[in-house]
Amino acid sequence: MTRARQSQVGWSEAAADMDAAQGGHAMGSDGIAVDTPDMSKLLQQYGCGPIRFTGTSDALYERHLMFDNVADLSTLGPRERFEAVARSVRDVLSQRWVLTEQTYARQNPKRVYYLSMEFLVGRSLTNNLLNLLLDPVVKRATADKGLDWIAVLEQEPDAGLGNGGLGRLAACFIDSMATMQLPAMGYGLRYEYGIFKQTIRDGWQVEQPDNWLRRPDPWEVVRPEEKVEVKLGCSFEVRGGTLGVIVGRPSSLLGIPYDRPVVGYGGKTVNTLRLWAAAAPDTFDFQAFSAGDFVGALAERLTAESLTRVLYPDDSTSMGQGLRFVQEYFLVACSLADLVRRFRLHNSDQGIPNWSKLPAKAAIQLNDTHPSLAVPELMRLLLDEARLGWDEAWNLTRQTLAYTNHTLLPEALEKWPLPWFALLLPRHLEIILEIDRRLTEEVQARFPGDDGRVERVSLIEEGAERKIRMANLAIVGSHSTNGVAAIHSDLLRTVTVKDLAEMFPESFSNKTNGVTPRRWLLLANPHLARSITNAIGDGWVTDLGELERLKPLAEDKGFRDAVRTAKREAKSRFADWLQSTSGVTVDPDTIFDCQIKRIHEYKRQLLNALRVVVLYNRLRENPDLEMAPRTFFFAGKAAPAYHLAKIIIKFLNNLAGAIDGDPAVRGRLKVVFLPEYSVSLAERLIPASDVSNQISTAGYEASGTSNMKFMMNGALTIGTRDGATIEMAEAAGEDNFFMFGLTAEQVAGSRSWYSPHWHYDNEPETRAALDLIFSDHFSRFEPGIFEPLRQTLLTGGDHYMHLADLKAYLEADNRLLELYRDPDEWARKVIVNVASSGKFSSDRTIAEYAAEIWDAKPCPVP
Ligand code: 26V
């Protein structure tokens, strides 16, 4: 027994006893011990030198376990152990975190501020360990000590502070910015309830609240001393249980910052994700209270505190949108107050801020229009507080702000009723109207007589209720507007906001999305990552272009075998996990064919389902048909008010049930709907996938990002020419992709004459599949429930053109199955795909933003 080991015997005996009693969930009594030589070296590197690490009884972990809980250790379970581990990791990174901010304060570089209503970060423990390079050390230590590491990791809830791609992109971006040592900060909201938990009951989606902060979150650091005040033009009160507005009586809210560390790979830079929580100001109306109006006195406090209670699902177009509007302003007001305070601190001469330096010291990126109130808010600060003239304020505002568009869907483009501005933000309305007046003047001067253009460019949409067009506001008020994939940026510029693009051509650019290879390859797929590193070294982790060097290895049998083995490993791992957590059995020797993303008509999960029904029909008709056995995985959440999306989920579940119950196809086809799609589920499933479905109606998916994750992880893509999938196919070569279907141009061009009925009448397999659905084959005990599918696919005109693409999809699918019969050829294509995925690292994307939009440079922390 080592000295360290001896020293901790005593206090930990009780824990060991408890572990034995729990039946083998043996928690090493010393948890993540810090007594190994590597560990102390690393700790020194992270600046933890002054803390004494003489033995495991001194270990951070043990101290946290004991003193944070002040409890008998034998009563503590995996949750407390997770918290203690996470707090220890936070301790390890904290000096580096402080040093990062000190460095920025000293060097005063231009800072990047990423404003986003969503940050879908998922779990942090494994990611932080990985980026701190502590992963191997901790693994060894926990293995030595018999800690049930998996059980500990499973205690961490996903931080689900986003709906989908837009929120996950923000999370990948802050990882890349920290890794690239950019002085950057994420600003968002600290929702108490993230995206709802999805369960499936009788095939239907049921939403449950995601109270992810029920237990204390070990990562966040609350900084009450940096609170900010946010002023609104009206007050709120609760009357008879409903929220009422008191017009003309201004009120204020407090924004309390909660900081989370963002550890760059290598642990050199630790940036901050600052999430704001709303609170009532520290005033209490004692007069009202003593007069007996207890409810009235508390109402304001309650309404203030509910502002950041929940993340809005992205379909809630009407219901409760007023609160969303205030949330957006709250994010903007808190973040701008905070960054302006920082600016003043570092850029003043004898207490007088040098405002002309603002664009040289701050780049503010608006993640979609959600934070586009930043335009009038920054104007307000510069006009009313800094007392600048309009022209100077306007130039500084435009030079500091930049806007990213993430969707062309008209129903997703934000427009807020003008009366809401009048009520809540009267000064902002004044500013917006003045921006609009000047804009109109400019359009009239440049395009005399073109009234249509004036109307289209205007920040105000006329109608029964006048509305502010937030995209127009963001474009006009910033120096840069970008889309997120080449095709998307082109459509944005030439169709969606054509007139504005003609006025400000130099503002428009493309920045194709990317994903962080740390989380999505190194962490999620250790087997493949190891094979890659064995082949080309580990430079790819921070320079994904290095993967290019794998290309020649497509001809190397040894490497093909390694890649195949890694995939098999990941599939078994997934199958075991699925079996143990849900009782569902899947066979890793079948093709894993996946479509995982939010459920939306334009993403066409229904097209995929139709493909499955056709294959099912083929097998029923011809039982001897040779067809490689397949498992089709679906996962995704439907926005709670999106009725048809929920029917699609029900259909997928019924399809799964009917196929499971049909002996004719048993062992050959299986459909699995995985509930509760999340970052963590994606991390499990993507490495195990053979086939990635990216089949949106061309022109509708701005970019997609799961497409990139699949490619990096050695899945082959079957997809339409949409979003970034186009660029992925270009990078790998179309012969290594399975592309099919109408192009965006063809979709737009055939709208007027397209008839889904034609396909029903003329394509026997299409017709048979639809007939089977409408015969209630998949709804025997619920006749008629899929009638809405007939409406959307047939009688309603099939807006998303499922039937137009079905035949081509099946042909591409055939080519894919043909390839599968030749394992060597399949492995070759997999390798070429992985090797060609380098472009889709978010490091590349961030390098482009930094160089072309922000003019931001790394600021290394010594
Ligand atoms: C919002 C709404 C709101 C109203 C109803 C329909 C609807 C549909 C979608 C959305 C989300 C819009 C923003 C968004 O999440 N865009 C996604 O951004 C990703 C990151 O750039 C990109 O990869 C996805 O293609 C894009 O859909």
How does this structure look, described?
Its cofactor is pyridoxal 5'-phosphate. It is a single chain. The chain has 862 residues and is an alpha/beta fold. It folds into 3 domains: 3-107 and 123-153, no CATH class; 165-513 and 848-854, Glycogen Phosphorylase B (Rossmann fold, 3-Layer(aba) Sandwich); 589-823, Glycogen Phosphorylase B (Rossmann fold), CATH 3.40.50. The strands form 7 sheets. Strands 1, 4, 7, 8, 11, 12, 15, 16, 20 and 21 form a 10-stranded mixed β-sheet that branches. Strands 24-23-22-25-26-27 form a 6-stranded parallel β-sheet, with helices on both faces. A 3-stranded antiparallel β-sheet has the order 17-19-18. It is globular and about 85 Å long. The structure holds ligand 26V.
Defining key terms:
carbohydrate metabolism; 3 domains; globular; Rossmann fold; ten-stranded mixed sheet; alpha/beta; 36 helices; disordered N terminus; six-stranded parallel sheet; single chain; 14% strand; binds ligand 26V; 862 residues; 27 strands
